[in-house]
Amino acid sequence: MYEVVSKKRLADSVTLLEIQCPAIAAKAKAGQFVIVRQKENSERIPLTLSDWDAESGTITLIFQHAGRSTHELALVEEGETIRDVVGPLGRPTEIEKYGTVVCVGGGIGLAVLRPIARAMKEAGNTVISIIGARDKSLLILKDEMHSASSELHVTTDNGSYGRHGLVSDVLDELIGEGRAIDLVVAIGPVPMMRGISDKTRPHGLKTVVSLDSIMIDGTGMCGGCRVTIGGETKFTCVDGPDFDGHMVDWDELVTRKKMYSEHEKECMALFRAECGGGAGGDE
Q: Which of 33, 100, 155, 205 has its CA at 20 to 30 Å from residue 272's CA atom?
């Protein structure tokens, strides 16, 4: 059992949990994830590490309340426990001194991007971060991304904070200005990562994305998280989650992520009924 030592609501339908996991905190690296099971009969949920502290033995998870399992997880309070936390899993992000690294993050993807940007800066890179959300109320980790970056650009789709527009608009400008860019890291919704990859491909800019395909065991045994990269089958849990954005079969990824959408809706409807029409205060 793993104790929740801290809980915060970061934005609408976004929760941060700090969990006591000494063994994981001691080995965690940027880009890796854990699989969480709240209780005995709960679904196993893969969540990328947003932070960790080897000294205190804690890890930090930030997640959006998207379906029944994440809504249930958001109901766990400080001092309560989580049944299982397995990790760290996946290949760490390749951190080295590239030169100038542009880190592009959207929505909940900022939870994943934060430790990567920090590690890139610590490795001696100039880190230009472009972060965005649909609305100011959904923007998370702005201060943390500022600390992890050499230069920070903030956008919102509706102009409620920062620049009015998309993260890709800022990337377009940087490329158009002839800024020297050695690596682009894009993490966020699939359409955003796909769009960034499409923009960098003509310029030959190496682009890394972090994929969140459907996952079950996290060890490469079940094959549920398979993706096609450069025409070859890879497993997100053991070969990723980082992949070359120019090699991803995005159409296949989108199709596979929708496989259980109807079942997910049914589970969420049942959960809302069990909660008397509510869903953990997110209505």
A: 33
**Beta strands at 183-187 and 207-210: parallel, antiparallel or unpaired:** parallel
Last residue of a domain, one of 165, 200, 235: 200
Q: Are residues 101 and 186 in the same domain?
A: yes
What pTM, to 2 d.p., does this model score?
A: 0.89
Residue 252 in domain: no
- CA 128: distance to chain centroid? 18
Read off the DSSP letter of residue 221.
S
Question: What is the token pair recorded at 210?
Answer: 């972090």
Domains contained in the chain, number: 2
pLDDT digits (tens, 9 = 90+) for 184-238: 999 999 999 999 999 999 999 999 999 988 888 888 888 888 999 999 999 999 9
Measuring CA to CA, how many Å separate 256 from each of 66, 119, 123, 252?
17, 31, 36, 6
- Confidence band (pLDDT; 50, 70, 90) for 278? low
- On whether the CB atoms of residues 46 and 90 are closer than 8 A, the answer is no
